[in-house]
Design brief:
The chain is mainly β. It is built from no helices and 11 strands.
Length: about 120
Amino acid sequence: QVQLTDAGGGLVQPGGSLRLSCAVSGGTFNSYAVAWFRQAPGKEREFVAATRWSGGNPYYTDSVKGRFSITKDKASNAVYLQMNSLKPEDTAVYSCAVGRPIISAIRDWKMYYYWGQGTQVTVSS
């Protein structure tokens, strides 16, 4: 059974950094993509970043380009989201997800069928 365990959230001041982790277990994922989504209170779920397990360039939503970085460690089946220069508008519950979207749909949360439980990120002074 596929399981995703995400962690690393917390309270950070504006301009600070956090590193989220997503441990993936229970399957082989060579043809899959792993993504991070976030959802703030009263807002729709939003794509943040994605990477294909087999390689290739990562994908980011415009608002995090240059600040966030998604990486993967195949040896430990983990994916990380390094978040720098955090802003109050980054406050949300962040969740990792695994799926097999076509490239044009890699930002569509409906293309992902395994999800972590979510980790809260709060950016506030």
